[in-house]
Design brief:
2 copies of one chain form a homodimer. The first copy, chain A, contains 13 helices and 12 strands. By secondary structure, the first copy, chain A, is of the alpha/beta class. Chain A has a 10-stranded mixed sheet with strand order 2-1-3-12-11-4-5-10-8-9, with helices on both faces. Chain A has a two-stranded antiparallel ribbon with strand order 6-7. Chain A starts with a strand and ends with a helix. The structure holds 3-isopropylmalic acid (2 copies). Chains A, B: Its EC number is 1.1.1.85.
Chain lengths: 350, 350
């Protein structure tokens, strides 16, 4: 199979972890006799430094032409200090989501049995946790109208949702639930927000076409609590952009290391895969960043492209590395393995 | 001292736990030679059933005249099923917050050493946790304009904040930090939201008048993660209404039982005290609800009214009950003590 893959390393540890993914893809090409071509683009702070914009049009073009996109991370300390700056690295990511219409963010939260001790939660609480968050990614308060009065004393953000925006992601979430434990939880704040009430109405209606899926509702405050008290009872969580941002980060903490979790951002025409974790600029260039999240994101990409066996080979190699304790220092403080060594081991075992 | 206290039991277990608070207040009156008068008002579902509105004007009047308000809880299963109904019990609470201008919600999250094992978090993670959330309570997306187009296909909520709304709560939060460990964390989403950027600007400026307080910033997604990974490093958290709702519920889960945590909602003229937990309708009338949160809210009320010694006496009695394991079933599944018995014990020990 011939595939075109766009590589957006981004900032901080993004490029380093992405390099490990590419090693794995080379191994996949060899083992399964595929041919992938790679094109690299700039985004985020790296693009700002070179082009003055966090999302150059060259980058958009190469993403549009690719069969799939692998993304590293965005943000540097320099820009983080000033979230009020007119141009910020994150805008590159937000714009890219819009440009490519990546309306669904999928974040699986699964505890690896070998790593259960890494969780901040007690074993009996975390045991068996395996859920996936479907977060709406191109609507809501992130993209609604923003206002600041001329005096700079009153500011506002609009959270708006349309039936269409809700229904396209809802269908994906119901389909996912159908193939899993058949439970879908819509997280909203329908006792307070008009947009949440629309979510509830639309999702309830769509639920009628998925009679095998049990649908329930949880207010977002309660959801944040349940994720702490009883995370294993969730199967598929469906929610809007901002709530999804908060809950998926909370969910990632469950697993003990942010360095383990992959994610996918998909639309009808394009798909992008990225590790859960951020750019972690403090670790940049130190060969200590955990490449597993990026490598598992690559497996999600292969799944998405229909290469299920190839994806399974990557996941198996990752599990082997975890089992043999060939991991970075976030998982084992005494580890002698760095980003490169863990990447090498996983690639070699594909 | 003569004081007028308004009692709003509300729904579910609200009235039962409030009764235990009143027992404690009677004990305080006797021991410290005070005279309190109590007036009762309806709110929430109870008020809807009787008056057709969740906040009758009689209730507003008696709250306005009182020196302080004790609140139980709001919401019943009947109304929870339909969050889209035109009139809902929660509106009573939201309106009351507005009417009385209770712009600051204060939620201390503190782990009782005797109950550390109840936490879903591991001991080493939770140990030493003692923070307080200052949540803005009368602004933001809860109260911004809500719209639904005539076709019912597009809905929106506006999140708006003014400098004035931010600054009045910020001053309270800085003062609290000054009297604690001198750390204030502003939680926002300034990389995405205009209103968050205003929060950051205003809070930074106010921070200059509190040089002894160290101010830092955390994006809300990161805050939800840190609360799981490292809750003990927080001191005072300041945040807007919706983020505060989510984080304080997440925070309450840290302690293992929602039945333990008190809260205060204060403005310049009025103050209301209520347990963290909701109305828990499943437990109504069963004498199993934990009265500690309501009783500790009463202690917060006494503190607020300048009766510090009296407040300390209540807290000491609560600690004694916990130490002697005179607790409800949420804390000890084999307990033979119910709501009333725990209330009696605490009142007797004041
Ligand atoms: C970088 C930031 C804008 C982004 C978001 O909030 O969507 C990130 O937190 C994420 O979750 O992907
Ligand atoms: C009942 C509800 C409207 C309320 C809120 O979200 O403010 C509650 O969750 C709270 O935290 O006090």
């Amino acid at each position: 199979m011939n595939l075109k893959i766009a590589l957006l390393g981004g900032d901080g540890i993004g490029p380093e972890v992405l390099s490990q993914s590419i090693k794995c893809l080379h191994a996949v090409e060899e083992t399964f006799n595929h041919h992938f071509t790679y094109t690299e683009g700039l985004i985020g702070a790296a693009a700002m430094d070179k082009f003055g914009t966090p999302l150059p049009k060259e980058t958009i073009a190469l993403c549009t032409e690719a069969d799939a996109i692998l993304f590293g991370a965005i943000g540097t300390l320099k820009y983080d200090e000033n979230p009020s700056a007119k141009i910020r690295p994150e805008q590159g990511l937000l714009q890219l989501r819009t440009e490519l219409k990546l309306f669904t963010n999928i974040r699986p939260v699964k505890v690896f049995p070998t790593l259960i001790d890494k969780s901040p939660l007690k074993k009996n609480i975390i045991f068996g946790t395996d859920f996936v968050i479907y977060r709406e990614l191109t609507g809501g308060i992130y993209f609604g109208e923003k206002k600041l009065n001329p005096e700079g004393t009153v500011a506002s953000d609009l959270c708006e949702y349309s039936e269409k925006e809700i229904s396209r992601i809802a269908h994906l979430a119901f389909k996912a639930a159908k193939n899993r434990r058949k439970k879908l939880t819509l997280v909203d704040k329908a006792n307070v927000m008009e947009s949440s009430r629309l979510w509830r109405k639309v999702v309830t209606k769509i639920g009628e076409s998925y009679p095998e899926v049990e649908l329930d509702f949880l207010f977002v405050d309660n959801a944040a609590m349940q994720m702490m008290l009883d995370p294993s009872h969730f199967d598929v969580i469906l929610t809007e952009n901002m709530f999804g941002d908060i809950l998926s980060d909370q969910g990632s903490a469950i697993c003990g290391s942010k360095g383990l979790l992959p994610s996918a951002s998909i639309g009808n025409e394009h798909a992008m895969f990225e590790p859960f974790h951020g750019s972690y600029p403090q670790a940049e260039g130190k060969n200590i960043a955990n490449p597993v999240a990026s490598i598992l994101s690559t497996a999600m990409m292969l799944n998405h492209l229909g290469l299920d066996e190839e994806a399974r080979a990557i996941v198996a190699a990752v599990k082997k590395a975890l089992r043999k304790n060939i991991v970075t220092v976030d998982l084992n403080p005494d580890s002698k393995y760095g980003t490169e060594e863990v990447g090498d081991f996983i690639a070699k075992n594909i």
